[in-house]
Amino acid sequence: MTIDGIEMNQKPARRHGADTEVHRRQRGKNLATLAALLGFVVLVYFVAMIRMSGGSFP
């Protein structure tokens, strides 16, 4: 099928350069967000354990 002379079943050509840099930066931001989220989950877990043990952590 064609729309305005463009085949719809073809994959777009990959551009090297600008797209690669943008994706690399976005991946770095995603990993930083993941690390912050995991750190928060670990903090909440330990605070819950301390509170359930009566305030003293063994």
Task: Summarize this entry quickly.
By secondary structure, the chain is mainly α.
Counting DSSP H or I runs of 4 or more residues, the number of helices is 1
Order of helices and strands: EEH
Mean pLDDT across the residues is 82
Beta-strand percent range: 5-15%
Q: Total number of β-strand segments?
A: 2
Q: What would you call the structural class?
A: mainly alpha
How does the overall form come out from the CA principal axes? Answer: elongated
Over all CA atoms, what is the radius of gyration? 24 Å
Task: Outline the low-pLDDT stretches.
Answer: none
For the largest beta-sheet, the strand count, sense and barrel status come to: 2 strands, antiparallel
User: Termini, distance in Å?
Assistant: 68 Å
As a percent range, the share of helical residues equals 55-70%
Strand order of the largest sheet: 1-2
Commentary on this structure:
The chain is mostly helical and 58 residues long. Helices cover 60% and strands 7% of the residues. It has one helix at residues 18-52, and strands at residues 2-3, 6-7. A two-stranded antiparallel ribbon has the order 1-2. The longest helix has 35 residues, at 18-52. It is elongated and about 70 Å long. The mean pLDDT is 82.
Write the layout of secondary structure elements.
Blueprint: E1 2-3, E2 6-7, H1 18-52
Antiparallel strand pairs: 1-2
